[in-house]
Design goal:
The complex is a heterodimer of chains A (93) and B (595). Chain A is mostly helical and 93 residues long. Chain A has one domain (4-83): DNA polymerase, domain 1 (Orthogonal Bundle), CATH 1.10.150. Chain A is built from five helices and no strands. Chain A has helices spanning 12-17, 24-36, 43-53, 57-64, 76-83. Chain A starts with 11 loop residues before the first helix and ends in a 10-residue tail after the last helix. Chain B is α/β, with parallel strands linked by helices and 595 residues long. In chain B, strands 1, 2, 6, 7, 8, 9, 16 and 17 form an eight-stranded mixed sheet that branches. In chain B, helix 14 (477-494) runs antiparallel to helix 15. The radius of gyration of chain B is 23 Å and the shape is globular. Classes of the chains: A mainly alpha (93), B alpha/beta (595). Chain A binds chain B through residues 8, 11, 13-14, 16-17, 20-25, 27-29, 31, 56-58, 64-67, 83, 85-87, 91-93, and chain B through 38-39, 42-48, 140, 142-143, 163, 185-186, 207, 210, 212-217, 248-251, 327-328, 331-332, 334-336, 338, 457, 460-461, 464, 503, 505-508, 511. The complex binds flavin-adenine dinucleotide (FAD). Flavin-adenine dinucleotide is lined by residues 13-19, 36-39, 41, 44-46, 48-53, 141-142, 164-166, 201-204, 213-214, 217-218, 221, 252, 353-354, 386-387, 400-404, 407 of chain B.
Chain lengths: 93, 595
């Protein structure tokens, strides 16, 4: 695996910016995830997260909200963490 | 310092519905066109629109653009310009059919025509009864629209600069617009985009309020950039609110919840709507419900530790009903309020939804400002469309589904005007002024070197709280006056924000500080304009301008049938007349707005 520090695709700042979405629902859920779980991700998990973030907003929210089942098993643990709704005051934007 | 320069015929800032529609026009005309966006185009906020786009196609029942025009003028509480409104309603069918040709998968009737459904405020025969006028693609209208137009742009070779943030509008000595400065997020490099014509299509600024349905990227960048470049902002006191957003989060709870039997309660658990609207109760119109909620909160009957919201209660409904009819709402309540509405009521608060005001334009999408000789002089080379612009078709209040129409019609007309303008210009670009990038560089330097300054997150929160409390859905003279003072103090903090992280690769802290520079301009414009307008009209409702026989709904046409213009310099206000003269039909005469 390439060195994370050198891989722009997995640059933490870039992934954080990719959490800016067109839907407020996703913005809030992802901000919560960034505040609580992001720093603990391993390089392999960052790679999964980068792939998950490339999903379309409507689809992504359908997975997070449970309206649709996500067909990709590798995203399941991330979706579970994104759904973790214990508050962190992240809605104050 | 030398800044790299890139040259284009046209530069468009914003890749939402308005920006994409304009870009099609320019690229199809063979002009070299750049579109800048903070996020990937199909992640623009237009993606959130579900309700549909209005057009009097008459596919489901008889309809006419003139009826649509009447509804829009009435909805605007007569503050909309009737020439622009006629233009938009007449063009609706054309732009919707074009969108269909770009591949938009509209819902269809059995006969294969675009299916249409009813939507609040859209009526047949000049306000007689509801008409089916909204065209939708299931519950993903905005998403489908962005995709269709993005694909079209790729086909016609529009050049996209994704994850670039425009920072300032650049004007030459004569005031003509010659480009924008922008930052590439990946490197933090600043580049000068030199253009013959510039369009702003940067969307709304709903994030100035603490409770907002808008996505985080909706920070009013275009509006802030225009204000810094000396362009006045029009009718910024007018913001549409939705009565029920989840408190603290802003995510919308649809009216449908009250339709299914949801009840609003205060801290005494009282069903307070019985006092405000004895007949309609919780199903009263949006503005009545919002005002009642704010009154309860202001009089100390709000809920929660800060007594800053009320409760939407559906615990009396059978769990099966909730699971069957409102599953999405249950998930939203669990995710964003931390409550299961089967067992506990949902905390809600009136929530900012849509910006009616913005950068002043005419119906050709040209930006217009007052000059020594005219109230509406065209700014050479500058255009605006979509939620950041004020044409003005929504006036004091927007009708649902008219904003997607606005961005198609005025995105297209702005694009056409730009093509004509660019083709009329000499082959060479107007030269850049010598100091073109100095202002931007000094702003970014200030931010990078600030010591002992304000925290971005805290300053933004202070602004949002002040806007929500002093300039929310229901406005009070004393609170507005205090609000003007508060916002100006907060603006002082914003001018001295400090960031700890100075890294160059996707530095979100720096980007958020630069966004806040734009938000604060919108907040100032809103507060100052609202404080000055001493009537109630459309979405601007004041306690000291109540409903009387001389002034129905508190509207004062004698003194206030005019557009506000706010200038950043000196926080100055000016006014210009509303255009009551349509293009081809008779004026739609002033009347009390009642439904
Ligand atoms: C929840 C919700 C539902 C809605 N439903 C409907 C509906 O059903 N029907 C309807 O008619 N209207 C609806 N609206 C309103 C409508 O969606 C918006 O008014 C409209 O989509 C705005 O489009 P726009 O093109 O002006 O801006 P946006 O779609 O917001 O796009 C703005 C673009 O500008 C870019 N940008 C911003 N600043 C910068 C910068 N500094 N540098 C570079 N790029 C920048 C962004 O990246 C983005 O690409 C709804 C709104 C909300 C919040």
């Amino acid at each position: 695996m390439s060195n994370v520090a050198d891989d722009v695709r997995l640059n933490p700042g870039r992934l954080r910016w990719h959490c800016r979405r067109g839907l407020l629902e996703l913005d809030i859920a992802l901000q919560r995830f960034l505040d609580k779980h992001f720093d603990a991700l391993t390089p392999a998990q960052l790679d999964d997260f980068a792939n998950l973030l490339s999903a379309e907003d409507i689809q992504f929210w359908a997975w997070v909200s449970g309206k649709e089942d996500c067909p990709f098993a590798e995203f399941e643990y991330l979706l579970r963490l994104i759904r973790d709704n214990t508050p962190v005051g992240a809605a104050d934007r | 310092m030398s800044v790299p320069v890139r040259k284009f015929d046209a530069v468009i800032v914003g890749a939402g519905g308005a920006g994409l529609r304009a870009a099609i026009q320019l690229s199809e005309a063979g002009l070299k066109t750049a579109v800048l966006s903070k996020v990937f185009p199909t992640r623009s906020h237009t993606v959130a629109a579900q309700g549909g786009v209005a057009a009097s196609l008459g596919n489901s029942e008889e309809d006419h653009w003139h009826w649509h025009m009447y509804d829009t003028v009435k909805g605007s509480d007569w503050l909309g310009d009737q020439d622009a409104i006629e233009f938009m309603c007449r063009k609706a069918n054309e732009v919707v059919v074009e969108l269909e040709h770009y591949g938009m998968p509209f819902d269809r009737t059995d006969a294969g025509k675009i299916y249409q459904r009813p939507f609040g405020g859209h009526m047949s025969n000049f306000g007689e009864k509801p008409v089916r006028r909204s065209c939708a693609a299931a519950d993903r209208t905005g998403h489908a629209m962005l995709h269709a137009m993005y694909q079209r742009n790729v086909k016609v070779n529009t050049q996209f600069f994704v994850e670039w943030m425009a920072l300032d509008l650049v004007r030459d000595e004569e005031g003509a617009v010659v480009g924008v400065t922008a930052m590439e997020m990946e490197t933090s490099e600043i580049v000068m985009f030199h253009a013959k014509a510039v369009l702003f299509a940067t969307g709304g600024a709903g994030r100035i309020f603490h409770s907002s349905t808008n996505a985080f990227i909706n920070t009013g960048d275009g509006v802030g950039m225009a204000a810094r470049a000396g362009i006045p902002l029009e009718d910024m006191e007018f913001w549409q609110f939705h009565p029920t957003g989840v408190a603290g989060a802003g995510v919308l709870i649809t009216e449908g919840v009250r339709g299914e039997g949801g009840i609003l309660r205060n801290s005494d658990k009282e069903r307070f709507m019985e006092r405000y609207a004895p007949n309609a109760k919780d199903l009263a119109s949006r503005d009545v419900v919002s005002r009642a909620m704010v009154t309860e909160i202001n009089e100390g009957r709000g809920c929660g530790p800060n007594k800053d919201h009320v409760l939407l209660d559906i615990t009396h409904l059978p769990p099966e009903t909730i699971l069957k009819r409102l599953p999405g709402i249950r998930e939203i309540a669990i995710q964003f309020a931390g409550v299961d509405p089967i067992k506990e009521p949902i905390p809600v608060v009136p929530t900012c939804h849509y910006q009616m005001g913005g950068i002043p334009t005419n119906y050709n999408g040209e930006v217009v400002v007052p000059s020594a000789t005219s109230k509406s002089e065209v700014v050479s080379g500058f255009y605006a469309a979509g939620e950041c612009a004020c044409a003005s078709v929504h006036g004091a209040n927007r009708l649902g589904t008219n904003s997607l129409l606005d961005l198609l019609v005025f995105g297209k007309s702005a694009g056409e005007s730009m093509v004509d303008f660019i083709k009329s210009q000499p082959a060479a670009h107007r030269p850049l002024p010598a100091n073109a990038c100095d202002f931007t560089l000094s702003r970014v330097d200030r931010l990078n070197n600030q010591r002992g300054g304000a925290n971005v997150h805290e300053a933004r929160l202070a602004m949002q709280r002040a806007m929500q409390k002093h300039c929310g859905v229901f406005r009070f003279k004393k609170l507005l006056e205090e609000g003007v003072q508060q916002i100006s103090e907060i603006a002082g903090q914003v001018a001295q924000t400090e960031i700890a992280d100075k890294s160059r690769v996707f530095n979100t802290a720096r980007l958020e500080a630069l966004e806040l520079d734009n938000l604060i301009e919108v907040a100032k414009a809103t507060m100052v304009s609202a404080n000055a307008r001493t009537e109630s009209r459309g979405a601007h409702v004041r306690d000291d301008a109540p409903d009387t026989t001389e002034r129905p709904n508190g509207r004062d046409d004698q003194n206030w049938l005019k557009h506000t213009l706010w200038f950043r310099e000196g926080n100055r206000l000016d006014y210009k007349p509303v255009n009551l003269k349509p293009l081809s039909v008779e004026t739609i005469a002033l009347k009390k707005r009642a439904y």
